[in-house]
Amino acid sequence: MNTLFDMSFEDAKAQHKKLAAEIRRHDALYYQQDEPEISDAAYDELRRELEALEQKHPDLAQSDSPTQRVGAAPAQGFKKVQHAVPMLSLSNVFSEEDVQGFLDKIRRFLGLREEDNIELVAEPKIDGLSCSLRYVDRKLVQAATRGDGAEGEDITENIKTIKEIPQELPAGAPDILEVRGEIYMRRSAFTKLNEDLAAQGKKIFANPRNAAAGSVRQLNPKITASRPLGFFGYALGEVSEDFASTHEEIRKKLSAWNIPETPYALCHDLEEVIKNYNKLQQERPDLDYEIDGIVYKVNRLDWQERLGFVSRAPRWATAHKFPAQQAITKLLGIDIQVGRTGALTPVARLEPITVGGVVVSNATLHNEDEIKRKDVRIGDYVTVQRAGDVIPQITGVLTEKRDGKQAEFIYPDHCPVCGSIAIREEGEVVRRCTGGLICEAQGVERLKHFVSRLAFDIDGLGAKIIEEFWADQLIRKPADIFTLEQRNRESLTPIRAREGWGDLSEKNLFEAINTRRTIPLNRFVYALGIRQIGEATAKRLAAIYGTFENLQAAMDKAQDRESEAYAELLSIEDIGPSVTDDLLGFFAEEHNKEVLLDLTAHLTITPFEAPKTSDSAVAGKTVVFTGTLTQLTRAEAKARAESLGAKVSGSVSKKTDYVVAGEDSGSKLKKAQELGVNVLSEQEWLDFIAE
Ligand code: IVH
Predict the structure, then answer these.
(1) Is 448 a catalytic residue?
(2) Least C-beta-crowded within 10 Å: which of 215, 318, 465, 549?
(3) Final residue of a domain: which of 282, 302, 321?
């Protein structure tokens, strides 16, 4: 047989052609169809053979050779899409009282009178995955998943295979229309799909939701086409013109434009809401789609607009969840997990059981008091409940099933991972490992948080890979992520040589890491995993301090509790003394300073861009409201100012731009006058922001 080295040019050419065709075929299988036939290693072998041929016969390295493609294959997965209007989630309510609370809050926010009715549209909460359809000039041009709400994935080609989604809208529909809704799989189709998959010896889906998500996230639209999916529209994104004044009208218009809509009910008071809830709960088993609750939306769009949003959910809508599904199983043991802040969390290990279509083998036990309070013992039979996406919980113990063999659980007073003492401070429910930086569990959890979805969100570097790379000492601190490629180049055991990896997946990983070398400040701050600094607070800090240098400088100054920087920090919404302690503690710690110095050298941190860009005169200004407002409630005034890009602060300082003084203003007004800050009456303020 010919070997590479004694092959004639003609033979080499023929061989090259064959290999190149083979590689192209595998590229298509991998990238377009998401169905590779060979392992990454076998694929790499083919490429190496091709490269060797070309080295021997450089003339073969023509521009159409697979070796010549720069940045060659299309990026793995789907293109990212920025949502023109963020895709939100919903708050939840679970009881009649909660619904009352939801209505009360709206009433207070809008300053409604006792006799004013709040009309709600009640529609089923479809258990699928949300999707935004974008129509331009009445043609479907883009479909995207929700992603993190700001950025989703482009699934246009797959969505175009769903027959009940119109590719064109009739005349009369706006020039730009984004329809938000839920993609789901009908129960009947789900059962049939699983039967087919089982017959082919393939893995079946746990529930219709997973089946719908799995079908949409197929790189090969042909597979999506073969899966019977449905769609229900329930909200709007960007629109070029207003065409309705109530949510009900929106639904009717969408329906007239052939967008499928669920049935709905109009409710005018709590009684009607609850009646409808009970009715739908009864109908639930007979519906051909899975629902996990009912969504209530304030019908009047002008009220929706005034109510606005808190963090990621609208104030004008909420989801009334159906009660959780329950099952009984045996508690096999209790494991202690250590989180990134050192918190010890007990997790119940269960005999696997199906609850509401999902196999459950773990459940949270919250903390040590909870174990005592419920008197949960190892070997007990327990009721487990699952509701929506929340972690399964143990809700009760069947004490009558005890046979004397059940053992009480002794809560550890040492960290099960690093062995340091675990302390429970006065008044705290959580016991924490004191190992801090030496505790491996905390280290790896901090890194998992660092790469998580709302933080750096690095494709291909999820929790599992972090654990592996941690164990192999490849990544031990955040900066290691950004030096990984360099170190890998010099390594004798590169990532591509690892089990389950290859040239391609290695390349994709580094590409994904490189795209995150530029990161918005809010994500960066959140990624640091400072105790009590969640996504919303990180955004607030980013909006107020603008750049990381400013933030860090302010935190340095604020270490002095007498400083103005400290007072400013405390005046920020939702940042009280306890959050301040955690923040300042983080920035004072020497090791953290080193980690930050090391890390920021690899990054470009961009300013936080508030989701709604506002050209209002008050954008970026700091406003303080004081005294009694008469035309709108304090909450609404604040929300409206914030939606225009203003920062609302609780105390007056030199940095305050405007003080809006209502009736009976006291010390804040006085301070404003002393400092020479602009003071406006309520009416002046309203005129000012109306411009
Ligand atoms: S409205 C601004 N309506 O539930 C309004 N959402 O838990 C945002 N969902 O992400 C959503 N049925 O995927 C709305 N009738 C319905 C819904 C619905 C299902 C999903 C949606 C959303 C999630 C929030």
Answers:
(1) no
(2) 549
(3) 321
Rounded distance between C-alpha atoms, residue 433 and residue 504, angstroms: 40
Residue-range definition of the domain harbouring residue 119: 80-321
Q: What ligand 1 atom has the least distance to the C-alpha of 127?
A: 19
- Is 671 found in the same domain as 600? no
The residue annotated as part of the active site, out of 13, 125, 464, 671, is 125
Which CATH number belongs to the domain containing residue 561 in this structure? Answer: 1.10.150.20
CA distance 333 to 407: 10
Note whether residue 464 is domain-resident: no
Over residues 245-299, the pLDDT tens digits come to 999 999 999 999 999 999 999 999 999 999 999 999 989 888 899 998 999 999 9
- 146-172 pLDDT, tens per residue? 988 888 899 999 999 999 999 999 999
Nearest alpha carbon, ligand 1 atom 16 = 125
Q: Name residues contacting ligand 1 (CB within 6 A).
A: 88-90, 123, 125-126, 130, 146, 182, 234-235, 295, 314, 317, 319
CA distance 308 to 318: 13
Q: How confident is the model at residue 115 (pLDDT cuts 50, 70, 90)?
A: confident
Percent of the chain with pLDDT over 70: 93
What spacing in Å lies between the alpha carbon of 48 and ligand 1's midpoint? Answer: 49
Q: How far is CA 190 from CA 193, 258, 370, in A?
A: 5, 24, 38
440: in domain: no
Contact (CB, 8 A) for 540 and 597: no
